[in-house]
Amino acid sequence: MTERVDPSLPTPLGGDLTIVDLSSGIAGAYCGKLLVDGGADVIKVEPPEGDPLRHRRLLDDPAPDINTGSVLFQFLALSKASVVADGEILGDRELVEKLVRGADAVIWSAGPGVGSREEFAPESLRRLAPRAVIVAITPFGLTNEPAAPVNEFTLQAMSAGGISRGRADREPLAVGGSYGDWIAGVFAAQGLLTAYTRARVTGVGELVDVSVLEALHLTQAEFFPTKLAATGVPPRTKRVRAIPGIHPSRDGYVGFQITTGQQWQDFTAMIGRPEWAEDPSLTRYIERIKRAREITTIVDEWTAERSTDDVCELAALFRLPVAPVANGETVPKLEQTVARGWYLQHPAGFTHPEVPYTFHGNVTRRAFGSPPKLGQDTAAARERTITPKLPTPTGITRSLPFEGLRIADFTAFWAGPIIGHYFAMLGADVIHVESPRRPDGYRNATLKHDMSEGWWEASPCFSATNTNKRDLAVDLSTAEGREIARALIAQSDVVIDNFSTRVMPQWGFDYESLRSIKPDLIVVRAPGFGLSGPWVDRLAYATTIEQASGVAFMTGFPDDRPDLGGGSMDSTAGTHAAFAIQLALEHRRRTGEGVLLEVPQFTTGINVCAEQVLEHSSSGRLLGRIANRSWTAAPQGSYRVLDAERPFADLPVDDWVAISVETDDQWLALCSLIGAEDLARDDTLCTVDGRRSEHDRIDEAITGWTRSRTAAEVVDAVRSVGIPCAPWLQMHELTTVPQLVDRKLYEMVEHPVMGTLPIITYPVHFESGPEEWHRRRAPLLGEHNAEILAELGYTVDQVDALEESGVIGRRVEASLAAW
């Protein structure tokens, strides 16, 4: 394995955090990997037959060697220890009790092994180790145990992301590649470190409750309920594709994301269509949808004549967001990943991604150790004595973990603001810095499409990702504005930006300059493709990252072009960055040193898409688009049902259910339910491989049964026989899911322009709070200018003069409203 780690440098966690992992599945495993890479010690407790991920086989693969495990297990288990414990044996249960009592944190999810026993359930673990952080990962949260099996596919259906993905004439589409399990793992790691931060002060542990469904709502739905409440009209009522979006090239596919009016003008110039540029209506996305066939056909013809590289190079010259649609074979070969060394070669022969962040300073990730053989550390664990490193209860209370932390938030859109938003919801003073001349681009997602007065305060998206923050609107193109920024930075702990790489340095805010202002400052740079390399100046949106990292290649129908995940890479990148900031804060706490932290969107994308590269590099198989089918289960798919009445006149008639058969027993139960005795008697269908080979025939039988029933009838019947099933929810139904209503995932927030809005909270519930996440609405533009400047030492007269000269402001000039 090619390592890039300086062994003389410390890791952020420095071995101070001991974690016992009782989880099963990708989410818990990725949570543990993120933490072990940061320097924690992770002890994986497995049943005698090994963790289920050791047995993971895709399609018709032979069963992997249990001792080494599947290639996915080997990647997720790097540097961990393996302890085997049989829950039926008293001595083994006592061993697990000893490990838990000595741990600083425990990761738990339902599955085989000791974690399935009542004495190791989350509430029991909380009593067993009162100083430890107990992280539980479940489908709906601990307060909503499902009555029937669920899996990530059915949870995706309940998040509504797929109802607008794909083609109007075909079924809703899930995001390929087990996306929900990966992102739930990030939230779990983030929640664990947050609770650890609080426990380190109080000496009291807590239960951290992570819901996969809630994680999907935050990352898949992009504030649909907030938009609906603000407009009264469900957004994206039909399944449509971006225009332009993904198009065939001479040697593959290439993807665009044309968002602004200027980008549309430049795109039309690039492909030689001046008549489109002259039509002002086409600058609006909704108008391009109306002419989708015409535009798509012409763009397809243009891209098909050129290679992917040629299109990307030309589009980059026009400053257009563009990317090759990469896959498990090509992602590691992209010039940017090669130049930055973002893939490593494992001794076992497979290729895997680097961690999603890079520290530039006197700290490093942990050097990758080998994945453990089954039970290789059991004997050592029996002899080992571990004690919690957290203090005994101190009597100190701390209602919010990040009280006293100040973050200067120089970000825009979603991927950047979501980073600071997490800390703002948990007590930090986050100051969102934008310009009265060029405000946060998310404000452009306005309800006032005519850009009339106050358009910048009518963005449901901005309102949803900036609650609890304060706003400073200052023109950084002026010397006075930059002086204000320097004063703010001098009083901050963390500076975040997600601009293109040239923006902050051109204002004089490169890392060395920032460090001269405050030596222990943590500086977070989160550009699309990193701070160096041949793609350093390329623009990127969430969809660009989906195209380049492999999400798009795995999403869609096998007989059609790749599709998009729906912007999920913004929230995915932001959540990884927030986790990495916590690692940097731990390093500063231990050493007093600041650090430059680089968290490109792209590297977060290639981590949650790791399996396709692992698989291709180990077996040569290219994991591609299989629509809603599964690599590990069959049958699985979206099935048409009777249509229900619509509360909105313009909603399409479009009701579907998601069904996933994961075991042979479930298959027989489904056959009995739908009256398909002939299928049950067919010996070729008694295995998952056999059912996969006859999937079309099986789907026809299932649809014949579902088509005469409502979604509710199908879901109730299928769940009653123990099979994962869920309706594909429409966007207006998101806030009515009983499990989410019970857990208050959406809080009502009063906004002075848009009224009362439901705003999503967070998929991590902390035993010690907060009880209320959105304690203050998102700020108006420049709302806190005077307040913040007073804290920085400016007088009232100076503030008035700065506003008079336009250095600060609370409105966007009408002449600039078209920007």
UniProtKB/TrEMBL annotation:
Pfam families: CoA_transf_3
InterPro entries, per the entry: CoA-transferase_III_domain, CoA-Trfase_fam_III, CoA-Trfase_III_dom3_sf, CoA-Trfase_III_dom_1_sf
Domain of life assignment: Bacteria
GO MF: CoA-transferase activity
Keywords for the protein's UniProt record, in alphabetical order: Transferase
Name of the protein this chain belongs to: Crotonobetainyl-CoA:carnitine CoA-transferase CaiB
